[in-house]
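User: Hey, my collaborator sent me this sequence without any context and asked if I could get a structure. I don't really work with proteins. Can you help?
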Amino acid sequence: MLSSPPSGLFQGVEAYLRSAVTREGTHPEIAAMLRAVIQEWDDAQRTGMRR
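Assistant: No problem. I've predicted the 3D structure and written it out in structure-token form, which is a compact way to encode the shape of the chain:
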């Protein structure tokens, strides 16, 4: 899931990925990548479009 977050979001692990962003010990680069993917997901949800 962490290696392919968009796939994880489609599989229903959104809460897990969101918690990984703030979890102590998550590498900063991974957290930044997750934040970007989650932001993209949130934007798509607002417009009613999924990739």
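In plain terms: Residues 5-47 form one domain. You can pass these tokens on to your collaborator as they are.
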